[in-house]
């Protein structure tokens, strides 16, 4: 067995990291403390401790690090830029919601070694195959169990390992496995013996049953056996034999089996654990939707109070909020602008104790990160509380920093009769804000005042606007909503109304069909109630049911709301735009989310079955259960649970069947949640995975679970069997 790091230490940068270095850990202008950092021999773990003798050390895994930023690329490092030069500074950006680690090396050369070395390790991890990842996981367990670091594992260490791995096994059975694996009869397990022990421990009886059902000789799947399995279970329809050959070539580890055009059990396991065997259809992973429809025909991944890292009363404001949201594929971010000192507009949650950041720093971050993960347009939703003078400064910053990325005029030089598409607007940043007059006046030349009031008859605000900032607003003019009837007669396609969750819910209940129709013509933004001072989220699904495009959530807050958002936007290349179903886009269609059976030509019954099996990595032994939730139109909302399994978080098997009837599959989201059952208090969350029903593959599939933060927790997974049947 080899660590993934094997072969890497020849690299000079990694050699330097293995020796270690004293660096300053920076938390603020006044908190700068020296720490000793070094890469451990596994080339997967960073170890660090205070220089003071006797202090405990800490570690983190390279797999926890998403990226390395060099120089002054964080607010903390920018604040000490006058003290430490950029070439000695770098930032480790962690996955999920964990705070960044800002460091200053003793020399530019040392910083360079750590920057290049960490990037090499991250790249190496990203290029790992499934088998290598599993090898790495086994190696990690071996290290954890080998308490005295002698490269061997005695039986006491094995018992500790079983507890760490969530396995409740009696001592006699554990000793039997240990003795069987101890081929050298030394009373300890070494590298290869530990692999054997691990394989015995993780024998997949559930997968073996499926394999043997389709294997003619019980040893392998011939090409014809695999062909039969793919047709019957995985519902592969076209070019099945060609596909079977391809799977053998990709996933079969035995060269001898490959020559026979066959798949062994190991190859079968590899296939089922791969992207091909995932519940999420590979065909839906890239951009597969028509991106040439008007903006209002898409759901748009949107963030509320993007600048906040925590709650709305005392939380920290940070440009990091914008960077994280944009890197998650968010395409609409919110900027609350207020007058600041020295004529510089600031961003914060007004009338609260949240900290303040400069508007120009927000614009710089958006300009830099807007198109890192998606080329499709970004909308800057501006809450403008500034004086006319500081609005002019805002306009200057937008023009100067964003340059050609900022959309300043309509694409064809005329007043629009329909909104442009995400494809038309690739690489562009749009401003959503109040505007003096409409686009029609801009082209007729009647608008020439330097400042003015919004001219809409339905605009009650008397705030003065600067012409310079107003001119930056093209396709997203913020207006006050009057009524659906008023909008149908008077509204322009480029006007955007915003609703609190309560207002949107009221419209949905009272006039669902009209709401859907309104959203087929123009954009609507829905945002959380101001009473959510803890930055919690509402359920976005009901707003998507009404066709609302910009459903703004607190990206900084983990939970069901963000799970659904991540799930919906995990398709279509994670580009932040998902095409709405046709019945929500066509003006002549009428769809009432409260009564979906009125949808023309739809036969409303679909059932799904799951037979879950889970591997969960936790310190204590859990009693796992799986809950499957359907989120969609009200008649489709449902939850069902398996029974819980006593004391087995490692390889519990349920063989429970759960059935659901779904009326509107195009709007349905499926959420798998694993919890640790507790009969005396609330169950503990273990992991979850959410995806659109339309992206699900049928048959035997693996579901790789995500943490509360939405980051992967390999190799924790569910193994399920899915069937979807349309009943006439």
From TrEMBL:
It is found in: Cytoplasm; Endoplasmic reticulum; Membrane; Nucleus. Residues 469-585 form the PI-PLC Y-box domain. InterPro entries: C2_dom, C2_domain_sf, EF-hand-dom_pair, EF_Hand_1_Ca_BS, EF_hand_dom, PH-like_dom_sf, PH_domain, PI-PLC_fam. Residues 133-168, 169-204 form the EF-hand domain. It catalyses: a 1,2-diacyl-sn-glycero-3-phospho-(1D-myo-inositol) + H2O = 1D-myo-inositol 1-phosphate + a 1,2-diacyl-sn-glycerol + H(+); a 1,2-diacyl-sn-glycero-3-phospho-(1D-myo-inositol-4,5-bisphosphate) + H2O = 1D-myo-inositol 1,4,5-trisphosphate + a 1,2-diacyl-sn-glycerol + H(+). Residues 444-463 are annotated as: Disordered. One of its GO terms (biological process) is intracellular signal transduction. Residues 581-707 form the C2 domain. It holds the Pfam family C2. GO terms for cellular component: endoplasmic reticulum; nucleus; plasma membrane. It is a peripheral membrane protein. CDD domains: C2_PLC_like (cd00275), PH_PLC_delta (cd13363). It is an enzyme of class 3 (hydrolase). Its EC number is 3.1.4.11. Its cofactor is Ca(2+). GO terms for molecular function: calcium ion binding; phosphatidylinositol-4,5-bisphosphate phospholipase C activity. The keyword Cell wall biogenesis/degradation does not apply. Residues 15-123 form the PH domain. Keywords: Calcium, Cytoplasm, Endoplasmic reticulum, Hydrolase, Lipid degradation, Lipid metabolism, Membrane, Metal-binding, Nucleus, Repeat, Transducer. SMART domains: C2, EFh, PH, PLCXc, PLCYc. PANTHER family: 1-PHOSPHATIDYLINOSITOL 4,5-BISPHOSPHATE PHOSPHODIESTERASE DELTA-4, PHOSPHOINOSITIDE-SPECIFIC PHOSPHOLIPASE C FAMILY PROTEIN. This is Phosphoinositide phospholipase C. It comes from Scophthalmus maximus (Turbot). The lineage of its organism: Eukaryota, Metazoa, Chordata, Craniata, Vertebrata.
